[in-house]
Amino acid sequence: MIIEDNARVLFQGDSITDCGRSRENDNELGHGYAALLAAWLSAQYPSRSITFLNRGVSGNRIKDLLARWDADCIALKPDWVSILIGINDVWRRYDQNDPTSADDFAASYRALLEHTRAHCNTRLILCEPFVLPVPPDREQWREDLDPKIAAVRKLAREFGAYYVPLDGIFAAACTRRAPAFWAHDGVHPTPAGHALIAQAWLRCVGAHCVAAA
To answer: How far apart are CA 91 and CA 84, in angstroms?
Structure first.
């Protein structure tokens, strides 16, 4: 398992990461994938004093992440930063007619990663944004989301980040149970969906004790 003793692991993103996390107590990570995988790693590797921090903010887009990055990442001096962002950059096109182009998304994401590398000695874990086909109108979102997924994949290669391919993982899971079992609105995971994210993340960092999905 690649996360070292005394590491500080920071989770960043939107509501999928936020998941009711406390703004006052860093030990209260919410009820989503961040809390699940932190609990698993703590139980599986108790000799490693790993600190987990959650700074996800519901509703955030990539531009919001970039705007608060100094306070909510650089100042925290994490050893690892895990980022899951992008679905709100898609959603706002369809519910508020406020799109973010794939080029603008990629440019902001690259600026965020460059700023991180310049000011913080950290390793990166990039999580793929995803959408499930429930309700049916989510199918239309693919035209906006797919180029953003491609951008995140390219950035992961460019910055040597670890990569968690969540859109593909959820697509595979939807062949075994209906999409609503994993995310009732195609975006926000159910408890099973959060567990799926946690398992994928844990496998990414080498926690092979987690069974393959």
So the answer is: 15
